[in-house]
Amino acid sequence: MGSAKNKSSAARKARIEEMRRAERARERRNRILTIAASVVVVAGLVVGGVVLIQSQSDDSDTAASDSKSTGKFVTGADGVKTWQGKLTQNHVTTDVKYPMEPPVGGDHNQVWMNCNGDVYAKEIPRVNAVHSLEHGAVWVTYTSKADKADVDALAEKVKKTPYTLMSPDEEQKDPIMLSAWGHQRTVTGADDPNVDKFFETYVQGKQTPEPGAACTGGLSQ
């Protein structure tokens, strides 16, 4: 049993590392192309991009007003709550009122929060964090009621784990919560075995709408 678990963990780590290498390669190619591009071409792209983004944003805002996440959480025997219903995925430029806290999906900003083991000291925009969940990230959140030792230990775990992020959230019900796209659970502390289990299951897990999408190059505090 231990051997099978170790093989599964090793395979997951290898898959994440392969995606990180591919992402770094894409970033290097993008930098080379940017340097090689002329000022005129760059200016043209910027102007065209602004027009295109504005047009897409207008369309997205209209779609978002007609499409909202609906459903409810259903708690499994393992303590993980799974959202049963519809989670919309429109890009919007306005704030979103989510039916759960922290949100586990729904309409979101077109820019994601950096989630390559990023630990944020202040609360982050939910509309950007939800985009990170869409990319397969696990979001660790905590309130001021959480023990500082647990917060520090969880922060160290997040820093070592690609496709994760962490931030405070005073609006959530419990001191420490873990969220992925469509899934959420409460944990008692950093040493709760359910922390590792949740990470192993949902970091780039089967629930990910956009597996392998970037967790860098987005929004950062």
Automatic annotation (TrEMBL):
Residues 1-22 are annotated as: Disordered. Pfam families: DUF3105. Residues 1-11 have a biased composition (Low complexity). It comes from the Bacteria. InterPro entries: DUF3105. This is Membrane protein. It comes from Streptomyces spinoverrucosus. The lineage of its organism: Bacteria, Bacillati, Actinomycetota, Actinomycetes, Kitasatosporales.
